[in-house]
Amino acid sequence: MISDDQQSVDGQRFWLRQMREGLKRGFNIGMIDGEQMHLYDKADDFDEWIKSLDAWGQNNEHWFRLFFITKIKFSSKEQGNDKNKES
Asked: Poorest-confidence range of 1-5, 46-50, 60-64?
């Protein structure tokens, strides 16, 4: 499941709720920002991860930030494709 480019308060609440539920069910979650993928590391605090992404806003740059919930297991190489992690 992947979000659309709409930036509403209701949409934000929906996605936060769905991502938390996905985590409880063992799914992987993340955000795509243009060509960059940011996977959530379950060892991190969810709310801090969300804040670090600056995912919602009215600027055009926010239109290209899409959340996803998936059963797909990512390789360590794909998991390393995250600008929030140190190289």
From this structure: 1-5
Residue owning tokens 């993340």: 30
Q: Are 3 and 64 in contact (CB under 8 A)?
A: no
Residue 5 CA to residue 55 CA, distance in Å, equals: 11
Specify the DSSP class assigned to residue 74. P
Sheet containing strand 28-33, edge to edge, reads 36-39, 28-33, 65-70
Q: What is the DSSP string of 3-24?
A: --S---HHHHHHHHHHHHHHHH
Longest dimension (CA), the chain: 35
Whole-angstrom Cα Rg for the chain: 12
